[in-house]
Amino acid sequence: MGVLEDLRARRRAVGRVSTSAFDGQQPALLLIPDISGFTRFIEQSGSPQAPFLVADLLEILIEANTLELEVNEIQGDAVLFYRLGPPPTAHELVQQCRRIYLDFQNYLRLVEQDHDSELAAALRALVLTLKIVVHYGRVSVARIREHTKLMGRDVIVAHRLLKNNVAGSEYVLLSEGYTRTQPPAALAAAFSWTRLLPGSTHYEYLGDTPYYYAYLSPLRLLLSTPGTDAAGTPGRSKTLKVRRALPVSAEYALRVVSNFRLRPRWMEGATAVHYDVTKAGRLGTSYKVDIGNGQIDFQTVQVLEDETGRYTYVEKISHYRLFPNALLFYHIEPVTAQACLLTLELRYGHIASDSRLVCFGQLRRLALFLGRSLRQLGELVERR
């Protein structure tokens, strides 16, 4: 056995390469959501929370997965998804792209609602948005230790398509490799809410590469705005609030609500909390709370104090299926040196159900959950 063959044999002993019976490659969908304005936002925002926000946004992109895509890698401001096998229909693909875009933009709007936040001010001045590249081709899937690596010409094509001749910064781009798999009538129907336009870019070694693209801007009409419900009807804000006076100082109340270890002692239904004790107290720290038969993931986002001594402590809620991309605000207003007013405010982008009955029932349950949690928090601090 030669040196090269020996090296390949050793590598196969650690990881395996999946191959088809023909050319060592498999058909695959490649989908790359890319955050536009990422570099400028990090460099010019001036907010220490900017990197945490971008990390949250990348997580939003991953959570918006409706096509059972696999995450291959995260590359700074983009996520490379893939799915082996036949391509999704044009309708399925468009629904996936719409979900990614709407969840991304709704989360930004939730953060922007905090008018006193330096981070919100930076978002209003330095626009972040999203472009999505879709390609269908053939890839080799290599397992290298615990990592999965996609290889092949079509992986290169998908990455190159991120740099193109499309004007603007929020659109979905479909390669010819994908559009060839779909009937023209199905493509036209799937993009009936916008215009699907032809384009092409010349790449070194690849030559002229044709594609179709459609702007995502019309979807902004569907975004959640203060004072509207999921259908855009005025009069229903996407927030839930409960409030209670506490017989402790604002500083003490902040210490209690930001103490992960105390969560099971006041959060309704909580039985345990899991977190890295070496990171407790840091912004950006994630922790998990066992509630009932499930688990909810939280992440600390920011702590603000204004000139009146009012605190705002914010946490992101992840993997909460019916209320994706929600933020939990703790507004703590000092009343006296030994009393404060605590408001729990949940802001959510949308409810992941088309049933009005389900939405109403879940909002009612969530309001009860917040109310009981706040009551138990009051009882906890009264016993101090």
From TrEMBL:
<dbReference type="GO" id="GO:0035556">
    <property type="term" value="P:intracellular signal transduction"/>
</dbReference>
<dbReference type="InterPro" id="IPR001054">
    <property type="entry name" value="A/G_cyclase"/>
</dbReference>
<feature type="domain" description="Guanylate cyclase">
    <location>
        <begin position="29"/>
        <end position="162"/>
    </location>
</feature>
<dbReference type="InterPro" id="IPR029787">
    <property type="entry name" value="Nucleotide_cyclase"/>
</dbReference>
<dbReference type="GO" id="GO:0009190">
    <property type="term" value="P:cyclic nucleotide biosynthetic process"/>
</dbReference>
<dbReference type="InterPro" id="IPR020503">
    <property type="entry name" value="Uncharacterised_Rv2561"/>
</dbReference>
<dbReference type="GO" id="GO:0004016">
    <property type="term" value="F:adenylate cyclase activity"/>
</dbReference>
<dbReference type="Pfam" id="PF10851">
    <property type="entry name" value="DUF2652"/>
</dbReference>
<protein>
    <recommendedName>
        <fullName>Guanylate cyclase domain-containing protein</fullName>
    </recommendedName>
</protein>
